[in-house]
């Protein structure tokens, strides 16, 4: 006795389930952790988020979502911290304008502004030991 093929609707549902499972498996294979690790390495330089997202094969929005979920900070904030760390490692080795350029800032004024925002004092004051006093942590608020 010959087997009758399943109805077309059942075949379509089966194919849709297989395709969905394959896409989910591929997404998991290149999941958030791998993408975030890749982006963290790329954002330590002067790369822009759009460029990093393109190289990672995802949209900027997806990359921002993964950062918020996995890191707890925005990619922009991670890049700012990375540039600040570069400033700290290069400080005193050359002129501030060259340090700003090497750290990926547009100019010295932007470097000083970012440094002050994150550290509470400009870089020269920080290096001379004039650091801000302790401040209480603010509660995190999530939208």
Automatic annotation (TrEMBL):
Residues 33-129 form the HTH araC/xylS-type domain. The keyword DNA-binding applies. InterPro entries: AraC_XylS_family_regulators, HTH_AraC. This is Helix-turn-helix domain-containing protein. PANTHER family: BLL1074 PROTEIN, HTH-TYPE TRANSCRIPTIONAL ACTIVATOR RHAS-RELATED. Keywords: DNA-binding, Transcription, Transcription regulation. The keyword Transcription applies.
């Amino acid at each position: 006795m010959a087997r009758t093929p399943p109805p077309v609707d059942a075949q379509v549902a089966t194919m849709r389930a297989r395709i969905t499972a394959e896409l989910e498996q591929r997404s998991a294979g290149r999941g958030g952790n791998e993408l975030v690790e890749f982006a963290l390495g790329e954002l330590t330089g002067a790369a822009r988020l759009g460029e990093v997202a393109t190289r990672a094969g995802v949209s900027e929005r997806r990359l921002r979502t993964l950062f918020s979920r996995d890191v707890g900070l925005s990619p922009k904030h991670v890049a700012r911290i990375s540039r600040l760390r570069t400033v700290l490692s290069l400080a005193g080795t050359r002129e501030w304008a060259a340090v700003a350029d090497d750290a990926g800032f547009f100019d010295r004024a932007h470097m000083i502004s970012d440094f002050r925002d994150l550290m509470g004092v400009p870089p020269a004051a920080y290096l001379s030991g004039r650091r801000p006093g302790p401040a209480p942590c603010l509660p995190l608020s999530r939208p």
